[in-house]
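Field reference: sequence -> structure
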Amino acid sequence: MSVCHRKTGHGRNSIDSNCQWNRLLRGFYLMNSHPLPLSKANLLVMMKHHLLRPSRKGSVVGVADDLCGLHATSSITPYLSLFNRIDGFSPEDLNRELNLKRLQRVRAMRGTLFLVSREMFPVVAIATRASEDKILRALLRWHISNHEFQTVSKAILSTLNQHSKTIVEIKRDVPRKFSRTIARKMGWRVMKRTNVDEVLNLLILQGKIQSQAEPLVWDDVKWDGYGLRFFSAIRKITYSPTPTGTDDILDNSARTKLVESYIRRYGPVAIDDIAWWIDLPRKIVANIVNSISDELSKVRIKGLRPEFLLHKDELSSLQELNQEHSSVHFLPYEDPYAKGFKLRQRLIAHSFERIAYPTGGALPTVLVDGRIIGTWSITTADHVLRLLVRRFDPLERTTLEKVREEGQRLGRFLTREVPTEVTIEGEKQWRQIIATSRPTYYLTGTPRRKE
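Structure field:
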């Protein structure tokens, strides 16, 4: 048994550091003999993701770094993700960072679009760029020879030498002799696109070209249908060569840094979570984890089978966490918290997983104390913005009140000129809305009207 005692003089610092280390070790052994409560594991991630009241501070770029990037498949998502994480956030706060290019758009983990900081961009771009084998397989699928790929690549990069351009401008400026239409049979459908389209896409996957979406004009966004279909208000996307300097980082080094960042920002996580998130084989991820094992601790989470990884310096944070009063969030489509894990039982009951993640993508979800309790969507009628909440289980009255309160706050953020109604499944108004709606309108997350 180790006994910590106070000592004055030259030996005090070493004694204090030993005491601190012993406390961490005791916490480590405690968590291995007594699994970590799921609520506490989620609470730690929420704190790191700026979803708890004391942590809802910081800058747009700082929050993006703390999430390993903002999901940007839908151009709306980064704005709503930041609304949930920064008190007093305004859409102009993100637009300013985009205009100053302090956040850059990159096709990264799992081929998904992210907004990442300039500092994080080289690591993310190198760690997630497509392998040569993947590029070759794509060329074979579209019947593009390597010679044609190199020729069209040079032509595209040449047109982007002076300034960024849209896809229409790129196609216009690439010499006609290099461009052709390709037809590819996919099941009973025939897909047609030009070789310029496909080569541009492969250059993005290689990390040689990056895209930039035009910042949103918030007042112009039409919210009807959000959460019911894929929803993006992007008006213009331009393409430009990737800044030089990213090749200075080796692939292995970049992957290790990205894995370490993910564990630090999303932990506790399982190896399967890491492999899925970064889109690498499990064996490669296991080797990376082994190379940084001195910095990690293993913990168990009550009710979940795998072993979970956590940075050692977060053990003390776990001991200090206190459950705050009920917190409610309306997370957007593909929010990093809802989409950050492969093992989703930590966030949602298995029986409801297919509703919240119908095709793998995360629908807009209602979060209560770190758990997904329903999905949400928007319809507009009679100059009213309706937030429709599909709940998975009965909710306590106090929770319902907090859901309505947060829904009203979201409505004021979306549009200040239109009143907001929050309608929860089971209410009379909900049944009226469903009964009078078009059955094909409710595509995902909300029940269709019975014929």
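Note: The radius of gyration is 24 Å.
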